[in-house]
Amino acid sequence: MKPTLVTGASGFIGWHVARKLLDRASAVRVLARDPSRVRELDGVEIVRGDLRDAGSLERAVAGVGVVYHIAADYRLWARDPEEMFRSNVEGTRNLLGAAKAAGVERVVYTSTVGCIGVPRGGLGDETSPVSAEEMKGPYKRSKFEAERVALEFARELPVVIVNPTAPIGDHDFKPTPTGRIVVDFLRGAMPAFVDTGLNVVDARDVAEGHLLACERGRSGERYILGSENLTLEQILGKLAAITGKPAPKMQVPYAVAYVFGAVSTAWAGISGKEPRAPLDAVKMARKKMWVRHDKASRELGFAPGPASGALERAVAWFQANGYV
Question: Are 168 and 202 spatial neighbours (Cβ–Cβ below 8 Å)?
């Protein structure tokens, strides 16, 4: 059996994909810049490497049958935004080029719901028009460009693209911006909220969606992996019901959040410390990122569960692992 390569296994979604593959008795190889960060994945083969290092990628894909390219520089603020483009865009180009040269049979590329168009007052899907001008901040712009790279390679290499929404659950090591909502709530560090909305999905369902995309997805196609469309107020209400802690009741006007984000981000540029409220995150919050996952359900058999169970696991995991 040829091994399967997973990039990003030290991160949130990548960990869950690797875990599911191991549970299926697959031979799993992971690419990691720092092998010590690959945790709770006994049995994987670790190849030290970097998406910006073409030689390490050639070693990583040698003899591999399938590649799950999940690794990404996922930050809503960076002192040097070009780092994101080097990892997310050129890194994707490097890996897919190495996969093509090695004769890899199939690639699943992990994009983001941020690359999906969302019509005003409606739900976005894979056919919704979207442009580069709508991509707010270097993270979304870099992922938008990386998705275009994946689509280019799909003309000559079987590449299926998945667009996860806002995953939630256990083993969110960093944590991600979505997980940060849970951590801030648990710490009592979220006294107010803005009027925004996310599509929330269980990270385990996202991992299952990756495997389904590999098995049933069509090359060159995109599949949204999402579940429930919720306002931030509703998410906080669910967390309150789970924990018994009170949910914040004050809604902050967008203009106030924008000013706070601008000041916070300007200070970060001086101090070098991550801003409390990155301006790009505030800009993203202006639009409710609500989408439908009908295509993934229809073509892949994707059947996500409700968000509540994932939120419960996220709360328990963060509490048990010293985040609170």
Answer: yes
